[in-house]
């Protein structure tokens, strides 16, 4: 399954939100992508894993997602320059 297919399988508002949810799902498999597609990532984490600092985890996952997108954009931009 591609990233586009995965992100389309749940109602994510943005690609960044989908990637953040994938980071959370990888770290906490009990958190389904469908549950993480809700409007508040921190609240969704708290529901599926109440024993973690949900707000901090959401913030970290969002930063990771933004970095992933930046890295992907820089890689795709440099691939055609050779």
What is the total tally of β strands? 0
Output the radius of gyration.
Answer: 14 Å
Shape: globular
Helix share bin: 55-70%
The helix count comes to 5
Q: Can you give a write-up of this model?
A:
The longest helix has 26 residues, at 54-79. The N and C termini lie far apart (30 Å). This protein has 5 helices and no strands. It is globular and about 40 Å long. With 82 residues, it is an all-alpha fold. It has helices at residues 3-8, 15-27, 33-36, 41-48, 54-79. It has one domain (3-69).
Keywords:
82 residues, mainly alpha, 5 helices, globular
Task: Briefly summarize what is shown.
This protein has helices spanning 3-8, 15-27, 33-36, 41-48, 54-79. It has 82 residues and is mainly α.
Secondary-structure blueprint of this entry?
Elements: H1 3-8, H2 15-27, H3 33-36, H4 41-48, H5 54-79
Helix pairs in contact: 2-5, 4-5
């Amino acid at each position: 399954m591609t990233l586009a297919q995965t992100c389309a399988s749940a109602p994510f508002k943005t690609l960044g939100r989908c990637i953040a949810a994938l980071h959370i799902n990888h770290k906490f498999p009990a958190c389904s992508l469908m549950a993480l597609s809700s409007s508040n990532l921190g609240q969704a984490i708290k529901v599926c894993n109440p024993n973690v600092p949900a707000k901090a985890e959401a913030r970290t996952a969002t930063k990771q997602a933004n970095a992933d997108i930046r890295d992907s954009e820089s890689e795709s931009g440099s691939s055609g320059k050779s």
